[in-house]
Amino acid sequence: MGAILSTHKVTKRFGGLVAVNSFEIDVQEQSISSVIGPNGAGKTTFFNCITGFYTPTEGEIIFDGHYIQGLSTDRVTQKGISRTYQNIRLFSKMTAIENILVGQHPHLKTLWFEALYKSRRFLKEEAEALEESIRLLNFVGLSGMGDHVAHNLPYGAQRRLEIARALASKPKLLLLDEPTAGMNPNESVELMHFIRRLRDELGITILLIEHDMKVVMGISEEIWVMDFGGKIAEGTPLQIQRNPRVIEAYLGRGAASGLNLTEEGEEA
Amino acid sequence: MNILKENFRTTMLRFGLVGSIVALYLAAVGMIETFAPRMLIGTSITLGHVFLLLAAVGSGFFSARELKEHSLGITATAGFISGAVSSLFLVILTFVIQFFVIQADQGSIFKLREMFVNFSPTLLEFLTFGKGLILGNILLIGLFGIMGVLGASFSFLPKRIRKGWINGLAWVFGIGLFSENVGQIFREFNGTSLNKLLFTGKSLNPIAALLIFAIVFAAGYYGVKTATNNKWKTFSPDQQKQGRLIFTVLGILFLVALPWMVGLFLSQALFIIGMYVMMGLGLNIVVGYAGLLDLGYVAFFAFGAYTMGILTSTGELGRVGFSFWAALPFAVLAGVLWGLLLGFPVLRMRGDYLAIVTLGFGEIIRIMALSNWLAPLGGGAQGILHIPQPELFGLVLDSPQLMYYLVVLGALLAAFVTIRLRDSRLGRQWMAMREDEDVAEAMGINLVQTKLLAFSMGAAFSSLAGAIFAARIGNIFPHSFNILISMNAISLIIVGGLGSIPGVIVGAIILIGLPEMLREFAEYRLLMYGFLLIIMMIAKPEGFWPEKRRRQELKDERDRQLASQTAELEN
After folding, report:
1. pTM of the model
2. Which of the four, A45, A68, B41, B224, has the lowest number of CB atoms within 10 Å?
3. Which domains can be identified in chain B, with CATH numbers?
């Protein structure tokens, strides 16, 4: 299995600030991998470059054999990349089902005026889309909550709904931006299992940004560490945990020199 | 106990004084005097009284609500006192008028009425009920107190009685206010005996008023509405389906018969309401669904009207001479094209910026129509004259009654298109875009296409309304297309409930229909608009008839609050 997403020297500058600096990753197909780094390292900016929200100043992004840098967000989504947001961004006044229906947008083919005379194709497609939405709702464990308005759902349910919406576009690659933010340890573990299920049952490649080290180390097959926009380390969780530059980035130089690295390999 | 007294006193004083300011304001702008000739019940209770006493009712209601936990006696007393307090400035006003207007020294430099034109002897007469300064003022204070109790009663009465009480008063007020119009409808049905029973002269007969009140009160008290709803639920789905069919047929028959029931004058009002419903539905797509705040909606209306004028006019500007029906598609097309043209440059703008730009575009159209540059085409300030009325199979649609059918058809078409699109992928695209543009795009939605579709769809209905408008009034001038039309359209969808189709109809009836029927209001129309919009934003931001989804949202919220409250109580 080869890489489904490769970034080549991706750089994003805002004026004089280099938010992402020649960042390179190769995400293997059907893997679960993570980008980590201290706050403000440029992780979300990097995600935004991948999804087309920003156009990288330099560099190439190759997804599934196509160059996608500079494409608009909707085109990138149609190519098969889907994402969730750090601070939940559901369509808050629409119902849960409607949120997922919007997510299915790239796969609906009927033209807008077919809705006026309810063509047979339109009716069939709408029925199928609804069925698929209910299936996804059940898949993320929100059965029966379809008619609730999104912003009235409990926090955890909103996170799940956002994932369901992202799945609705049938992505090949799913980008999760801090999926466990605001969750308690139990919920985080639950979500970890859920992310594994996504990969195992649906065969989706998953790329995370995550701060919860327990989740990152427990779930990732490969990790890239970002600091000041650049890549400072890459490797398996075990390699990352032992990497002095990573420890330095997280805890500062003094802490890094003072630590006994052999004891640091905490079980995850 | 002392704290209670303190609280009690400040509450009453506060609301009383606020009410007093409101009452003085209404008197100063001349509303009370203007509305005094419009009789509601008999010859003694007029619309002027309602406006005069509004402040007392309000202050009574609010102070009673503040003191809700106390006994009935206390709240009623509070209502009385704050009601009476709210007459304070009016009482002072009566003395001011007496001594500075009526008995004013002719040579005095200080002339109050030059500044306050409405402080007239007639107003004094009205405020003191023609009973002289002392007795009149005692009456005024007493009446304000009683009205304060009335206001308080909206808060302290048990729920079951309160509903019937408020509804009864509202019905009597409504029928009294529209006595002439209701009478007109009865006359069309040959109901002269009914007319004699209900009305004396131009207002409701006092006994009939009591009768109406009693009926509505009883209906509210015995829960007729809930009973009907419950009965409806016992019907089988098939029966319900039949029932709905019957209601639809009755509804259509009603719509068809309406203009002939209400006579010529009200038919014209209905025509205008229908036109605004059509525009409101179109604007609702742009603002309510797609969330693009368009304040220059009049531009599309003008485009439709001018296209219709240029293509069909038999005057000197009309070189084409199309019939109404041949010109109609072109008028709509012109509006859509303008919608696209406007859409492209503003695609990247959001929220307030979009509102300002569209506001500017709306004005540009009017000024362009006025300009000499386009005068050979649109006649400049002279406008386009001699636009023929539509003709259908030899029948000229020359009366408001016949034109009414045309706008009803247009409005039904708009409603149909709106409903079908709302429940489709495009409707979801619009709503997603309204909620969060970036995320919508990240869902694979093409924003350019989605926005342009919203703009052109809204433009189509507005220009359709404009085309029909041009054919109805026959002559169009640039000043007919001022910013007020945009403001009317946007206000009515906000008042009705953003995104709600019945809301548009309710909004059009309230904001367009009422001012048409109450000609006394004309002068205060904008004041009332502002007042109504502020009240709506505070008390009922979701509108008079909210969208189903919005109602669900509010219900969820209430359920959640209730749940957390009970949880708190259990702890």
Report:
1. 0.86
2. B224
3. 1-156 (no CATH), 247-555 (1.10.3470)
